[in-house]
Fold this protein.
Amino acid sequence: MAANRPLSPHLQIYRKQITSVLSILHRITGLLLCLGAVVLVAWIATVSIGPECHARFAALIHSIPGRLLVLGLVFSLLFHLCNGVRHLVWDMGYGFDLGTTTVTGWLVVVLSLLGTLYASLRIFGVMP
């Protein structure tokens, strides 16, 4: 009889909350930033190897997948930074009520997306 009981809270009726979604996204962006560190080390290595190797790396970064990778890393950095500041405010004991956590959660998302948009325009030469 115990085997037929649903999980609590049941996954089909559980509504995702902004705080839980951002917590999961914070962990994912932290892992992506580790990937970004590897890309940064690869870039530095290509600079030290020589101009031909660096030119190949630059061509790879300026391809469509490379640009998507850079944009993903920029978003990860900005999101992780904004959400980290939010956590620092929480560590000081502020912003725990439901309304504030919802507003600051959406603020983190909006600031990360706007920052990524601005950085992409600057990185890819659309904006001076």
